[in-house]
């Protein structure tokens, strides 16, 4: 997974690319690590707003670039950084079309689409596991519908 000094999009090994719900967690971990390692986390979470495009050149033609970690990049830099993050997310999905990913959206919008889709399912799984655990605890505690269980009654 090379980024180097050039803006290469990192590619995950095929087994870590997002195929669906079953490998969301490892995919998420790898993508966040790749983005964080380049200092571009604020693009994935949407906290660097897209700068306004200016109607004319307000920067001199010999303009230098802003630092890579700048919270206020020039418009073209913001676009390049956002596309790099979006490319990292989308190119590491085995079938983005099947998952309904619109690669033309901002990186943060693409990421939130995935988070909402897969994190919601995780919450549902946690809720179902909690419900199952509660039912097992109720059965093992001897409480049944608010009264003693049949097997707990004293013999005649």
Quick rundown:
By secondary structure, the chain is an all-alpha fold. It has helices spanning 24-37, 41-44, 75-90, 107-141, and strands at 143-144, 147-148.
Structure description:
With 156 residues, the protein is mainly α. It is 44% helix and 3% strand. The chain contains four helices and two strands. It has a two-stranded antiparallel sheet with strand order 1-2. Helix 3 packs across helix 4 (107-141). It is elongated and about 90 Å long. The N and C termini lie far apart (74 Å).
| Mass-distribution shape | elongated
Oligomer: single chain
Number of strands: 2
Estimate percent helicity: 40-55%
Number of helices: 4
| Helix-strand sequence | HHHHEE
- How do the strands of the widest beta sheet line up side by side? 1-2
Sheet bearing the most strands, described? 2 strands, antiparallel
Structural class: mainly alpha
Beta-strand residue fraction: under 5%
How big is the Rg? 25 Å
- Poorly predicted regions are 1-5
- How far apart lie the N and C ends? 74 Å
Kindly report the average pLDDT value. Answer: 81
């Amino acid at each position: 997974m090379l980024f180097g000094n050039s803006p290469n999009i990192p590619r995950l090994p095929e087994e870590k690319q997002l195929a669906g719900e079953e490998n969301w967690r490892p995919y998420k971990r790898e993508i966040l690590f790749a983005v964080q390692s380049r200092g571009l986390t604020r693009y994935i979470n949407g906290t660097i707003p897209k700068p306004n495009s200016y109607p004319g050149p307000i920067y001199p033609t010999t303009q230098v670039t802003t630092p890579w970690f700048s919270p206020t990049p020039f418009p073209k830099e913001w676009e390049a950084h956002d596309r790099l993050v979006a490319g990292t997310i989308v190119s590491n999905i085995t079938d983005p079309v099947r998952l309904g990913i619109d690669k033309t959206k901002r990186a943060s919008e693409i990421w939130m689409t995935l988070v909402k889709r897969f994190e919601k399912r995780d919450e549902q799984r946690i809720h179902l596991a909690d419900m199952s655990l509660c039912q097992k605890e109720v059965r093992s505690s001897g409480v049944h519908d608010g009264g003693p269980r049949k097997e707990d009654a004293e013999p005649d």
